[in-house]
Design brief:
flat; 7 helices; 7 strands; alpha+beta
């Protein structure tokens, strides 16, 4: 009864409008949707893969990555998986489903797809420094994706940092800390330096906050930047990202 109610309940928009479900499937963003999707795919895909393709390792949340050892194997598995999904009345997402070649210094064959996004990260060939020799080589590594950067930038716009009404920079730092901490704790686990453009954008917004808050910086952009730099040197732990060397 409760599952039926969750699947058929209308969605209420911010304006208060009720949108009723149309078609099949679980509603996107619904409370029960992730649970039902995981239950269904556990048998429709996970257990099926383990039984029919035991050598293929996989990772799955809502999206999935299947690790194959050759182009021939990936073509074969994709063909069988497509049939399996059809038999379960599902279909693979045409735009998201692709065969990617993990190109690095060892794998040098030509392939049109060498990059994919997963869980907010982009996996692709990247220059990497060897821990043993210190020399650069081409590895296959991950860093925050372009779409994730756009979402962070959009969140900064929504926060409207230049117009925050706190009387001091301490209040701004306290207000922003949960967001900054979350971005670093998630996207900073791999190649934290890739977050630098996001914190450069945040720096600009903090300077604009200072120019609106203090009259002496209103007409002098350089002085506002110098003021923020002095704050960073005096209180290096004030903003969470300053603790990681970002300015």
């Amino acid at each position: 009864m409760y599952i039926d109610r969750w699947l058929t309940a209308p969605v209420q928009t911010k304006s208060g409008e009720l949108i009723y479900k149309q078609g099949k499937g679980t509603p996107q963003g619904g409370v029960i949707s992730p649970l039902l999707a995981n239950l269904f795919l556990h048998y429709a895909m996970d257990k099926w893969l383990e039984q029919t393709h035991p050598t293929v390792k996989y990772v799955r949340y809502a999206d999935a990555i299947l690790h194959c050892k050759s182009k021939q194997q990936s073509d074969y598995v994709l063909k069988n998986l497509t049939r399996r999904m059809e038999s379960c009345e599902l279909e693979l997402h045409l735009e998201k489903t692709k065969i990617v070649y993990c190109k690095d210094y060892r794998r040098q064959e030509p392939h049109k797809q060498v990059k994919f996004d997963f869980l907010g990260y982009s996996f692709q060939p990247r220059s990497t420094k060897s821990k043993q020799t210190g020399k650069l080589f081409t590895g296959y590594d991950c860093a925050i994706s372009i779409d994730s950067k756009k979402r962070i930038a959009q969140k900064m716009r929504e926060l409207d940092i230049p117009h925050l009404t706190f009387k001091s920079i301490v209040g701004v730092a306290t207000h922003l800390e949960p967001y900054i901490r979350g971005w670093i704790n998630y996207y900073g686990r791999f190649r934290i330096s890739a977050l630098s453009p996001m914190f450069q954008l945040l720096r600009q917004k903090l300077v604009w906050w200072a120019r609106k808050r203090y009259k002496r910086y209103k007409t002098n952009l350089n002085k506002a930047y110098l003021w923020l730099e002095r704050i960073r040197k005096q209180f290096p732990g004030l903003f969470y990202h300053w603790q990681f060397g970002f300015s």
